[in-house]
Amino acid sequence: KTIHWIVDKLEDNISTYPQITEAAQFLSDNEVIAFPTETVYGLGANAKSDEAIAKIFAAKGRPSDNPLIVHISTVTQLHELTDHISEQAKLLIKIFWPGPLTIIFPKKEHSVSKLVTAGLETVAVRMPDHPIALDLISASGLPIAAPSANRSGKPSPTTADHVFSDLNGRIAGIVDGGMTGVGVESTVIDCTGEIPVILRPGGVSQEEIEAVIGKVRVDQALINQDEKPKSPGMKYTHYAPAAPLYLVDGEQKWVQGLINQKQATGQRVGMLTTNESASIYKADYVLACGSKNDLKTVAHELYNTLRAFDERKPDLIFAEVFPRIGLGTALMNRLEKAAGHKWIRQIDADDPNHIQ
Ligand code: TXA
Ligand code: MG
């Protein structure tokens, strides 16, 4: 049975809470525990133990070639994981840690279980910006490997309820700290080469990174879906709700026409939109996901909204799209995956040469 530890007050020094000490003890005992970070819930275990890490892969049903992020609570812990911290990485750490930025370093030998890094010579490290995560890590005294606490392929969890519905009975416990803030995962940046490369867009945008260290590169696989991603996890389908999801790009009147067409054939249609347009669309299930004028609110709600469609069971879902600027890049990356890259564009429909 999975233990449910509730931490509903975050004001005081929470490291003295019995929930935290008990959960930390489970980590020291090589058990697997879910806990909140500022991005999404993580599924943590002792990064030094093969036995503990094997339990993460088993609970998630995660392919063993997909490495895990190691979570730390102090920069001192970083020196146990790597001997090579580039100047750019130092700057990124200074500005963005603790926070939603994961940095890839050359790995120090024997510092963590080989299962964590899936046999790679590099290690991904992040310092989460959440009091529960930080206190749990320091109370355990260990580097904590933690992927998102969902079953593989499902949207990442932003509430303890999401974790329960995916993993109840498969893990030792959950520290419930309420809904997470950022809502999408950390940005992953490889700092092992001359020019840093973004492998996964996330909570810190490319623009914010470049304001600190200058031009960076972006893994070509993020732009061209035929390229092989440098981050093993990016090749897997992800975030998909149960019903097929289509990204729709066009005027609202045209989108409403698509909804009407599908409804006319007896299908129940879901529309994933924002606060501004929720009252405009007429569909079977219209769910608003934040404000399009503040993409932080969209990121905060995205996975919760994708999971909410699963409860309503539409036959298909149409989703509004966002400009790929700032946080919009991460949102579109997750939506493209959720949709399996299925697009419907008004431009194509209006083009007499376009074959449907
Ligand atoms: O916000 C987050 O990053 C959350 C919270 C829990 O911290 N964690 C998370 O972990 O999203 P996960 O396992 O779902 O995603 C980790 C990503 C995967 O795409 C994985 O392939 C990549 O990081 N990764 C890990 N180690 C790597 C390495 N050495 N080289 C390249 N990519 C790596
Ligand atoms: Mg994940």
TrEMBL record:
Function comment: Required for the formation of a threonylcarbamoyl group on adenosine at position 37 (t(6)A37) in tRNAs that read codons beginning with adenine.
Record has rRNA-binding as a keyword: no
Domain YrdC-like: 17-204
The organism's taxonomic lineage, starting at the top: Bacteria, Bacillati, Bacillota, Bacilli, Bacillales
Any Gene Ontology biological process: regulation of translational fidelity
Reactions that this protein is recorded to catalyse: L-threonine + hydrogencarbonate + ATP = L-threonylcarbamoyladenylate + diphosphate + H2O
Source species of the chain: Lederbergia lenta (Bacillus lentus)
EC primary class: transferase
Primary localisation category: cytoplasm
Residues bound to L-threonine: T39, H71, R126, A146, S186
InterPro entries in UniProt: DHBP_synth_RibB-like_a/b_dom, Sua5-like_dom, Sua5/YwlC_C, Sua5_C, T(6)A37_SUA5, TC-AMP_synthase_SUA5
Name used for this protein in its record: Threonylcarbamoyl-AMP synthase
Residues that coordinate or bind ATP: R62, N66, T122, S148, S156, R200, Y239
EC number(s) from the headed UniProt entry: 2.7.7.87
